[in-house]
Amino acid sequence: MRSILKIFIATLLIGHFSLATMAQDKKQDAPKAKTEKKMKMKAHVCTQACHDSGKHIYAHGEKGHVCTSACKK
Questions:
Q1: What beta strand segments (E) does the chain contain?
Q2: Does the pLDDT of residue 41 top 60, yes or no?
Q3: Measured between alpha carbons, how far is 64 from 41 in angstroms, rounded to an integer?
Q4: Pure H helices in the chain
């Protein structure tokens, strides 16, 4: 009975150390950076909204436009 117990403990120890060495070899992937799709920007064309407000109102995709949370919906 004691020899079976020794074999069982030896097997557990070998299994434990083999798993521990495998954990050390595992490469951790760096978190992927969030990539935003870049669209080609076109030149601004004034609309009636520009004339009414007295300043340029840039549409999404025009040069000079700054995206807000409303654009990302």
A1: none
A2: yes
A3: 9
A4: 2-25, 48-53
